[in-house]
Amino acid sequence: MSDFFELVNVDKSFGEHHVVKDVCISAKCGEVFSLLGPSGCGKTTILRIAGGFETPDSGSVWLDGKDVTALSPNKRKVNTVFQNYALFPHMTIWDNVAFGPRIAGMKEAEVKKQVGEMLEIVRMSAHADKRPDQISGGQKQRVAIVRALINYPKLLLLDEPLAALDLKLRQYMLLELDRIHDVFGTTFIYVTHDQNEAMSLSDHIAVMNDGRIEQVGTPAEIYENPATKFVASFIGDTNLFDATVSGIIDSEYMRVDIAGLGEFCAFNEHKFPAGSKITLSIRPERFRIFADKPSPMDRQNFIKGKIIDIIYQGAQTRYWVEVNGMRINVLQQHNRCYLDQKQPTWNDEIWIAWHRDDVTTLPKTRD
Ligand SMILES: Nc1ncnc2c1ncn2[C@@H]1O[C@H](COP(=O)(O)OP(=O)(O)O)[C@@H](O)[C@H]1O
Ligand SMILES: [Mg+2]
User: Fold this and answer.
1) Residue 277's domain spans which residues?
2) Is the pLDDT of residue 216 over 70?
């Protein structure tokens, strides 16, 4: 088996509540694999099944080529880091990290060496004699992570480990987690509802919705080529349009008719035949705003609209543009080229343009 960690057709219900639905995931050795989805979609349940704290109703769990479905948590060489750190409050940081190796019967000289190394890695050596209530949230989280890594698990499960931290600390801890992952090379299964965390840390992301995996891909794949409406709108912002394929231009491009907007060109990635009813996704940052009708440009679509709302966001401005009663979300980065132009204002009639390759068509799957 080439993949290091796998869930195969895993199903789980709590009473009538079907929480995990035929989930298959596979992570490669040494990668960061994220489960990303809204609260209540089943992420923690999957992590508990991976760790052996929950038994699936059907399906199997594989680790390093072995079926571990029936193994108890302590037989799996898997460790978990929880959101609330779960450090022992009455013990020093040193004793917290030393706890696992001591329980496992490691000689004290070896414990000393390993704990020293671990605290060094997370820059906590100077705080070794403090208790958890004497250090910050980010420091506690770093201690919790090395405490989970000290016995070199094959797999580290992290359940929303940064959710309790404020934004700045979360951003810092993301860099720290990335560095710690590089040092240890352990396979991480990382659960989060935060797309930015998943995007910045992961090699692969499984996007979950209501107990199912909607799509698995690299961060760029799920952003650039979302497979379902749910993925397109959960990962970043997007504009979704129902459309009909009104003609095939060549082997790559088609004409699409968006009800209320008109006919445009789009890349036909999934080779839809004429007449197909499809959904298009166009990201807000892919539009450009022009005060006057632009002269024809290669492979661009144009449409006239009216600015109905403007939200200044520092690095960028978000415009809501109305076209025939539809609201289109347009994002303009504040680069010099943009700032040097006259900026549009409320009720301005403007043109928006987008490249035909910037239209993503969602394959006809569940949505
Ligand atoms: N032990 C349990 N008994 C009953 N329902 C549970 C149990 N654990 C989780 N659930 C339910 O399963 C659903 C998924 O929960 P969870 O896996 O914690 O989601 P997430 O981590 O994505 O927020 C929720 O509706 C939750 O209430
Ligand atoms: Mg959870």
Assistant:
1) 239-362
2) yes
Judged by average pLDDT, the poorest of 79-88, 110-119, 310-319, 346-355 is 79-88
Mean pLDDT score of the chain: 93
* Distance between CA atoms of residues 264 and 236, nearest Å: 24
CA 148 to chain centre: 23
Pairwise pLDDT comparison (79 vs 341), residue with the higher score: 79
- Ligand 1 and 209: CB distance under 6 A: no
Contacts 24+ apart (CB under 8 A), 329-338: 329/237, 329/238, 329/239, 329/284, 330/284, 330/287, 330/289, 331/237, 331/284, 331/285, 331/287, 332/288, 332/289, 333/285
Burial zone of 1 (CB within 10 Å; 0-12 exposed, 13-18 middle, 19+ buried): exposed
Looking from the CA of residue 35, the nearest atom of ligand 1 is 22
Judge if the beta carbon of residue 215 lies within 6 A of ligand 1: no
What separation in Å is there between the alpha carbon of 107 and the centre of ligand 1? 40
- Whether residue 303 contacts residue 323, with contact meaning beta carbons closer than 8 Å, is answered with yes
Question: Do 109 and 251 belong to one domain?
Answer: no
Choosing from 16, 41, 45 the residue with most ligand 1 atoms within 8 A of its CB, the one to mutate for a pocket test is 45
On whether both 244 and 353 belong to a single domain, the answer is: yes
Q: How far is the CA of 44 from the centre of ligand 2 (A)?
A: 4
Q: Which ligand is nearest to the CA of 82?
A: 2
Contacts of 136 (CB under 8 A, 6+ apart): 169
- For the whole model, what pTM was predicted? 0.90
Summarize pLDDT for 149-203 with one digit per residue, the tens.
998 899 999 999 998 888 888 898 899 999 999 999 999 999 999 999 999 999 9
Q: Are residues 53 and 188 in the same domain?
A: yes
How confident is the model over 286-300, as pLDDT tens digits? 999 999 988 887 889
Say how many domains are in the chain: 2
